[in-house]
Amino acid sequence: xxxxxxxxxxxxxxxxxxxxxxxxxxxxxxxxxxxxxxxxxxxxxxxxxxxxxxxxxxxxxxxxxxxxxxxxxxxxxxxxxxxxxxxxxxxxxxxxxxxxxxxxxxxxxxxxxxxxxxxxxxxxxxxxxxxxxxxxxxxxxxxxxxxxxxxxxxxxxxxxxxxxxxxxxxxxxxxxxxxxxxxxxxxxxxxxxxxxxxxxxxxxxxxxxxxxxxxxxxxxxxxxxxxx
Length: 228
Fold this sequence. Notes:
By secondary structure, the chain is α+β, with helices and mostly antiparallel strands. The chain has helices at residues 23-26, 63-69, 71-75, 77-83, 108-115, 145-153, 218-222, and strands at residues 13-21, 37-43, 45-46, 49-50, 89-96, 102-104, 122-129, 134-139, 161-165, 171-174, 180-182, 186-193, 199-202. It is built from 7 helices and 13 strands.
């Protein structure tokens, strides 16, 4: 059977997050599954989070099924030869009502060795930002691993982070190994490699409704951080 070409749309995969808000519903019209929707995965082939077609002849079929059946029609011959039957990008919208954790992502080599996954380079496009909103991208100049560990131990990590005020239309390219965080009040679109590997190193001493802190990945992050 030959592949039927048409503009394919996908069901969004909504993610409730401790830092999420309501803008994905109020601004982008996504279903309001809670008051803290943090992410809407628009096109994903991440295991257990695979997008389903929402329109046309392939409605209800998964992106994974379509790639297996029509690999070169969906991906092109170069992508198939490079990544196999893996859609190499993940498209998201994120609403940060509160600050995300200070985090980073491993490169392809580390991610492959540790998680059998791609690394996670990502790009942000700011769609809306409240007054005073900012993002964290990288350390301030001259920070060493020793500086980082000292501030992590004393819970003063924000003092050595590079904070950048943001407005609608700003864009950022976040390479693997770069410490970063989306600040509260920012709605953005994200294009990233197909990976869900995140190393959290600081979460603002935040607890959930049951008084529990989220898992940190300080040891895993040590080898992955880029101080340059």
